Amino acid sequence: MSLSGVCVTAVESRPADGGTAHAVKAMGELGGASQGPVHRPFGARAKAFVALTKPRIIELLLITTVPVMFLAQQGVPDLKLVLLTCVGGYLSAGGANALNMYIDRDIDALMDRTSQRPLVTGMVSPRECLAFGITLAVVSTLLFGLTVNWLSAWLSLGALLFYVVVYTMILKRRTSQNIVWGGIAGCLPVLIGWSSVTNSMSWAPVILFLVMFFWTPPHYWPLSMKVKDDYARVGVPMLPVIASNKVVARQIVIYSWVMVAVSLLLTPLGYTGWFYTAVALAAGGFWLWEAHGLQNRAKAEVTGAKLKEMRLFHWSITYVSILFVAVAVDPFLR
Question: Considering only CA atoms, which of 317, 294, 300, 242 is closest in space to residue 8?
Answer without folding.
Answer: 317
